[in-house]
Amino acid sequence: MTGGASGIGAAVARRLAGNGATVTVADLDGDAAAALADEIGGRPWQVDLSDVDALADLTLETDILVNNAGIQHVSPIEDFDPLMFRRILTLMVEAPFLLVRAALPHMYESGYGRIVNMSSVHGLRASANKSAYVTAKHAMEGLSKVTALEGAERGVRSNCVNPGYVRTPLVEKQIADQARVHGIPESEVLEKVLLTESAIKRMVEPAEVAALVAFLVGDDASMITGASYTMDGGWSAS
User: Is-contact 174 131, C-beta < 8 A?
Assistant: First the structure.
């Protein structure tokens, strides 16, 4: 479970542990990972996923992999820092590829594997001022589908979860940036920017995302692979 110490990651870790899984909480924040792992009877893994050279020879003996780690940067393309663009794609595309690559041999050997890639409505739709994030999430969609096709005959399923705005620290940190880019007060960002495309005018709760992940890795989803499950309040319906 990458990005497992807070937000969506922590909610998923708690849900899967509650269902009987031994969860490895992988996060850049080692103290937070250790605290959550201790709470749920799991294992902490302090890791910098942007250090992709260190992941190249990694081996993961896991039955379930949830790629969740991510960052955000809000800026128009002409002002977008190229180093930040590269950092986002490294963390949110290259690292998940390397983790899938590290996990598949064990999954293939055991004939069982479940991969959930935490995508976004931005894996299916675009928004202005988020060129790197939208690009990364679209790439994750492709990686997940290729994994599903290659793994199907060997017991491995791969799917994406595509929420709209989730009530997490990552989203809360965007509010000031969105207010600056749009020239509006922070108090108006939720209504005038974040939820304008959503038919249901509230953010997704982390526990709701965790419930969908738990379903996708369970036996009731045995025919679901290569799919992208939206939970965006109707955003992608328009």
Answer: no
